[in-house]
Amino acid sequence: MKLKLASAAIGALLAASPALADLVFPDLSYRTGPFAAGGIPFSDGYQDYFTLVNERDGGIGGVKARVIECETAYNTEKGVECYEATKGEGALIYQPLSTGITYQLIPKVSADKIPLHTMGYGRTSATNGRVFEWVFNYPANYWDAASVAINYLLDENGGSLEGKKIALLYHNSAYGKEPIPTLEALAAKHGYSLSLLPVDSPGQEQKSQWLQIRRERPDVVLMWGWGVMNQVAVQEAANIRFPMENFIGNWWAGAEHDVTPAGMAANGYKSLNMNRIADFPVFEDIRTHVHGKGLAAGDGSNVGKVLYTRGMYAAMLAVEAAKKAQEIHGTANITAAMMRDGMEALEMTSEMMEALGAPGIGPEFSVSCEAHGGSGMGIVQQWNAAEGRWIALTDYIAPDQDVIAPLVEQDSMAYASENNLSLRCE
Amino acid sequence: MFYREAGDFKTSYRDDSQTFPIKFDRFRYYAVLLVALAIVPFFIDSYWANALLVPFLIYAIAAIGLNILTGYCGQVSLGTGGFMAVGAYACYKLMTAFPDVNIVLHIIAAGGITAAVGVLFGLPSLRIKGFYLAVATLAAQFFLIWLFNKVPWFYNYSASGQISAPERTVFGIAVTGPHTEAWAKYLVCLLFVAVLAWVARNLTRGSIGRSWMAIRDMDIAAEIIGVNPLKAKLTAFAVSSFYIGIAGALFFAVYLGAVEVGEAFGIQKSFLILFMIIIGGLGSIFGSFAGAAFLVLLPVLLKNVLVGTLGWPTDLAAHIELMIVGALIIVFLIAEPHGIAQLWRIAKEKLRLWPFPH
After folding, report:
1. Which Pfam families match (chain A) (predicted)?
2. How many domains does chain B divide into?
């Protein structure tokens, strides 16, 4: 019996039967742990869109997409296990939705030659395609987000932030630390003072940080939070009666579940967003072709939410890149290397987005060999607690590339020299 | 039938006090070593290495380290994660400062630095013990993590605060960095494990190990019969931290390649390794391996069975997996409070008489 069990177990471990006929899109999701609130809607949107493409269009260029879900719990060790377990299946692209796992995977995907798309997260300097061949972070990254937030504040304050006090409340990890260099460079340029308030993961304990905010009275609090940290921060801000309109989260701190626990007190909280939220026609297709047939990922309750929309947008960009790759190479059965070529040639126009049933979901952008980062534009949205929805306050705001470009250059060149990489696209 | 001593004659004290006195056991040990060293490296793929064997071996080193301190010397420590972080950051600073030196030397040096830090944080153990010492080591855990987050020198001023291991080679073969072959990773960890486990076994049955155990069993009595508590406790902290530091260095450089201190070496890691030695068996080298295997391999196995074979949703499987592992821990501890090592000992006793117990 023991032997039987053992051999069954070994068999289960080795049960990896590669079906070469599919296009494989692994989904390193997290539906458990302190970050599940954000991981679930994103993963639902990501998977539902691939199911939609399979059901409605019969796949991508006639080849079915296959999503392999693997639970990481936002934990890097499990992320590595998931990566190793799925890469042999012919994975075309990885989107781990975790900056920690991204840092882990950047060297690995570069060695295994599989593209990595970190949409609005991950390593910012990966936007430099001359150094990072396999990593993409279009349509925007953290440094863009920091600059968009500052540009918005400049606009609000008549073009000057001289003498203003801005506090950054951040998740004390690679994710939260990413915007600091940009915010510091911008502080030097615009004359505001920046104070840094780290919150240790997962972020349930923030009393001392908010006490400090109460004492220092910053004009604006920016937040780089994720998971349970966001809800707690919004609640704490409400507790000290911090004016919500001066509290701005980044695009990972601006979903419905972040503000609803605080109820009416969260009214007026602002956040960035890299994609628009609206009742896109594509949701109707998802309801008919995916949910109607009982194929929904998760419980199907998240359609149209902020992170669901973003997950769907991520899948949409992956599908468009795959189509581009099929077009370039003239074959429907693309490999990971072909997928990379497709991503590098991707161009999103408003006509394309309209044709996909999601007009204006993201900014128009194009990717090239040098620039893997897209346009970097973002919008500012505000929570209306009475109506229970996010309202876009601005159109797409462009980041200050004069500040970001030299920082990207410096950081990516440091990476290149550390790893003895020669520059591409020359 | 299996563990028969009949015909296995010992003619010297040396033979009599060897680690595996029974012939069958000894050959089984050689067979395991042979398979691990000479057969596995030829068949290992990157999934087996990165997801199963390398983490298992590294956690086994950390568990042996903690077992020396807690299991043999009786000093409860919750600072394991912090000491692993010291090993990892020491290794990172050495790797980047002296790129031409062999990485194996860096890893050993990282263990040495961790030993020094461990002795420093072990000083309170001379005055306090039990729960109070646990709290003092907990302070070490939080202080060290805070330090590595706060001071940019430790992470070479990188924008994200992450440390990542550049490629380093041993005899021209990459053992760190993304281009490392699965077998190279595995063999480096295996060699460290084999040597360290052998050293630990021999330390713990020598005079120094006996002085640790005397302190564990009753410190006042030990002092009266002439065991120096200062020396015994501080050597336990030093040796234990050396092992944990090496585990941390391997964890960062060979296994993950990039770490974030709060996430990789947080308090959960300290608890995980403490659970490993409690479940595996306090005061047993085999128990350290068994505990590491139980907590590293079992969750992956369950996940593969539930998601891969049965096709359950990943979130359901993740929750059920927690429940199964938790239930098994309770079952094990009720069935045998001294851990898997004790179960193994009892099984061996029974096998010696089997099939004629009377």
Report:
1. Peripla_BP_6 (PF13458)
2. 1
Q: Which residues pair with A216 in a beta bridge?
A: none
Q: Which SS3 state, helix, strand or coil, does residue A397 take?
A: strand
Sequence-ordered list of residues with C-beta below 8 angstroms from that of B132, at least 6 positions apart, any chain: none
Pick A104's closest partner by Cβ from B258, B304, B319: B258
> Please, are residues B87 and B224 in contact by the beta-carbon 8 Å criterion?
no
Q: With CB atoms and an 8 Å threshold, state whether A84 touches B50.
A: yes
pLDDT tens digits, A333-360: 999 999 999 999 999 999 999 999 999 9
Establish if A205 touches chain B: CB-CB under 8 angstroms: no
CB neighbours of residue A125 within 10 Å: 27
The range of the structural domain enclosing residue B201 comes to: 20-353
CB atoms within 10 A of CB B314: 23
Nearest-Cα distance to chain B for A267, in Å, is 32
Domains of chain A: 21-141+277-376+407-418 (3.40.50.2300), 142-275+378-401 (3.40.50.2300)
Q: Is B11 on the interface with A (CB under 8 A)?
A: no
**Which residue in chain B has the smallest CA separation from A177?**
B160
- Which residues of chain A have a CB within 8 Å of the CB of B55? 77
Q: What is the ipTM of this complex?
A: 0.89
Within B161-284, residue ranges assigned H as helices are 182-204, 207-217, 219-224, 229-250, 261-264, 267-280
> Which residue's entry shows tokens 């461990």?
B118
Report the CATH number at residue B130. 1.10.3470
CB atoms within 10 A of CB B293: 18
Confidence band for A18, pLDDT divided at 50, 70 and 90:
very low
